[in-house]
Automatic annotation (TrEMBL):
CDD domains: GT2_GlmU_N_bac, LbH_GlmU_C. It comes from Anaerosphaera aminiphila DSM 21120. This is Bifunctional protein GlmU. Transmembrane segments: none annotated. Catalyzes the last two sequential reactions in the de novo biosynthetic pathway for UDP-N-acetylglucosamine (UDP-GlcNAc). The C-terminal domain catalyzes the transfer of acetyl group from acetyl coenzyme A to glucosamine-1-phosphate (GlcN-1-P) to produce N-acetylglucosamine-1-phosphate (GlcNAc-1-P), which is converted into UDP-GlcNAc by the transfer of uridine 5-monophosphate (from uridine 5-triphosphate), a reaction catalyzed by the N-terminal domain. Binds 1 Mg(2+) ion per subunit. Residues 1-232 are annotated as: Pyrophosphorylase.
């Protein structure tokens, strides 16, 4: 069995945040989530996450995932260190298991890399395999120390390294694979005889070497994969790398981006082929976008389903559904639970909320459609307001097929306009309008002669 132990107990003081470090998000997903997903995609069958600082929040966020959480004790007499953290998962693996050690603050590690790493470890029958990397500036990393036969025999941390050892460029990524029995036995030999006074997992390497156990080193091809996040600027750098990776994959799958650097798409999003995305778009959460769509300008789409052939121009769409060949915007807002049909136009400064808007219907500009069921081929004129709130409760309006709502009309809910009902411009409708009727509700117009001269305005 393949078991992964993910270390996520650190406080992350340099983040200067009340949020646990591993819950800080990159493109909508916590750092820890990326590490968990990479492990799962590498056919890891059991995941044990070691938590400490902010454990309640971490537990709550991942409560629906099939994960074991182990809490690292905290206190002045606790030795801490990576070795101590791994000890907390003692019950979660067996002697014959392959145990993969990962870090919750290195979200860029790819499942493909882990696949190759685990395969190398198992085929080589190593007791321990270290994921290593060559860095131009290895400062701060533990150095991989090899003997005259180029065999790894220890890892030395920066603070404990000699001047000669500090010149070594091959570093420990913090990712290991162990045979379960060798890991458990070697953990018992750890001590705190080091600069930090902690139990270093890396000290196991020297113990295994002295016992003539086989130790492997698997070199990383893309050093960015082990980039660790310790501060907000690190988080920003990591986000840029992930954005580039995610956008590139969408483009490889047939999506066009005019300027991918200016487009933010979360990896949970699905986008169909031949969709074109212009600069400034933000697409988030559980959103699916069909084929042959066009997204212009500062469009943001959140947790929504967009059909094929849809054009969205500088609009905000939240938790809504948009049918095929519909046009949204510019400067429109679909608020949660807007269900917009096919071949619809939702135009300039139109807001739709908690409403059904039927196929072929139009709201060209400056309208509010709230808590309404609008049929097919309905025209909603400029300045129309569906008055849905009485100060205490929300009420729904219903508009039938082929109805016409004239400009500046108010539909005061609850009210019903049947099929082919016509509402004259400027009317405030409080009573139902039946099929084929024209409803006019206006005060009688009065023109007063000489009024301007009497007021002295001329």
């Amino acid at each position: 069995m393949k078991v992964s132990i993910i270390l996520a107990a650190g406080e992350g003081t340099r983040m200067k945040s009340s949020t646990p470090k591993v819950l800080h998000k990159i493109l909508g997903i916590p750092m820890l989530g990326y590490v968990i997903n990479s492990a799962k995609d590498s056919d890891v069958e059991k995941i044990s996450v070691i938590i400490g600082h902010g454990k309640e929040k971490i537990n709550e966020y991942f409560q629906n995932d099939d994960i074991i959480f182990r809490t690292q004790p905290m206190g002045e007499k606790i030795p801490y260190g990576t070795g101590f953290a791994v000890m907390q998962a003692d019950l979660d693996y067996n002697d014959e298991d392959t145990v993969l050690i990962l870090n919750g603050d290195t979200p860029l590690i790819k499942s493909k890399t882990l696949d190759g790493f685990i395969k190398y470890h198992e085929q080589g029958k190593f007791s321990c395999t270290i994921l290593t990397a060559d860095l131009e500036n290895p400062y701060g990393y533990g150095r991989i120390v090899r003997d005259g036969d180029a065999q790894i025999y220890k890892i030395v941390e920066q603070k404990d390294a000699s001047e000669k050892e500090k010149l070594i460029r091959e570093i420990n990524s913090g990712i290991f694979a162990f045979k379960g029995s060798d890991l458990r036995e070697a953990l018992r030999s750890l001590n705190t005889d080091n600069a930090q006074g902690e139990l270093y997992l890396t000290d196991i390497i020297k113990t295994l070497f002295d016992e003539e156990k086989r130790i492997g080193g698997y070199r990383l091809r893309d050093n960015r994969e082990i980039f660790g996040v310790n501060s907000r600027d690190h988080l920003s750098i990591c986000t840029e790398i992930m954005k580039e990776r995610v956008n590139r994959q969408y483009m490889l799958d047939g999506v066009s981006m005019i300027n991918p650097d200016s487009v933010i798409i979360e990896p949970t999003v699905k986008i169909g082929r031949d969709t074109i995305i212009y600069p400034g778009a933000i697409i988030q959460g559980d959103t699916s976008i069909g084929e042959n769509c066009t997204l212009y300008g500062n469009t943001r789409i959140v947790n929504s389903k967009i059909g094929d052939g849809v054009t969205v121009d500088n609009a905000l769409i939240e938790e809504s559904v948009v049918g095929d060949n519909t046009t949204i915007g510019p400067f429109a807002h679909l608020r949660p639970n807007a269900n917009v049909g096919e071949n619809v136009k939702i135009g300039n400064f139109v807001e739709v909320k908690n409403s059904n808007f039927g196929n072929g219907s139009k709201a060209g500009h400056l309208a509010y459609v709230g808590d309404a069921d609008v049929g097919e081929n309905v025209n909603v004129g400029c300045g129309v307001v569906f008055v849905n709130y009485d100060g205490k409760n929300k009420h729904r309006s219903e508009v039938g097929d082929h109805a016409f709502i004239g400009s500046n009309a108010n539909l005061v809910a609850p009210v019903k306009v049947e099929d082919y009902g016509y509402i004259a411009a400027g009317s405030t409708i409080t009573k139902d309008v039946y099929e084929g009727q024209l409803s006019v509700e206006r005060a009688k117009q009065i023109n007063i002669d000489g009024w301007v001269e009497k007021k002295g305005f001329k």
